[in-house]
Amino acid sequence: MKRSADLLRAARPLPSLLPTALLAATALLAPAGDAVAAPVPDLVCRLDAEVNFDPPLGALVREAEVDGHIGYRDCRSPSGAAAELTDIVFHVQGTGRFGALPVPTFAVEGTGAGTWNTGEDGTLYFNGTIAKGSPVPDRTLTSGPLAGDRINGIQIPTPRFDKIDVNGVAGFDVIGQVCFWNGEKGRCTAY
């Protein structure tokens, strides 16, 4: 009988090991003390843009002038660095390009100038493609408040039906969300 009681005691885990095991598991799952915090954007804004191509871009015309506007509306400042900045519309101009292979693509490059809601002027450089669900073209503020900030986000361009003709596409309306970053860019979709 004594022997079976000894076997039972030996088969049961020791109660003092359970708290130690739980403590070790918690330590493994906890974030590291020296982990770098994710970057926080200076601004998060609603994107409202219109780009126009003259002449319309398509199979016959591969390069055209671009004009229109890039509006950043209803901005908020998660980092607190620019809480006073809520809106700006950049009037833009530049070059648009059409590429047909392997799929039709529209690319834009140019500059823009606008005035923030505070009355301060700012300028912008942009370069990239216009594609549904793709990142917004690379954008950098070149002067004014937040000069040097880079902009990323997601865009949803829609060809304007009043801007489509037999020669190609003459314009897009673009909506989305963008973030302004001072230094390292993070994921704008997190905001």
| Oligomeric nature of the chains | single chain
Shape: globular
Task: List how many beta strands DSSP finds.
Answer: 9
The proportion of residues in beta strands is over 45%
- Stretches where pLDDT is under 50 for at least 5 consecutive residues are 17-28
The main sheet orders its strands as: 1-2-3-4-5-6-7-9
Helix amount: 10-25%
Q: Sheet with the most strands? A: 8 strands, antiparallel, barrel
Q: What count of helical segments does DSSP give?
A: 2
Estimated radius of gyration? 27 Å
Class of secondary structure makeup: mainly beta
Distance, first to last CA? 67 Å
Order of helices and strands: HHEEEEEEEEE
Average of the residue pLDDT scores: 84
Word description of this protein:
An eight-stranded antiparallel β-barrel has the order 1-2-3-4-5-6-7-9. Helices cover 12% and strands 49% of the residues. It has 191 residues and is mostly beta strands. The chain has two helices and nine strands; from the N terminus they run H-H-E-E-E-E-E-E-E-E-E. It has helices spanning 2-11, 17-29, and strands spanning 43-57, 63-76, 88-99, 105-115, 121-130, 138-143, 150-159, 164-165, 168-181.
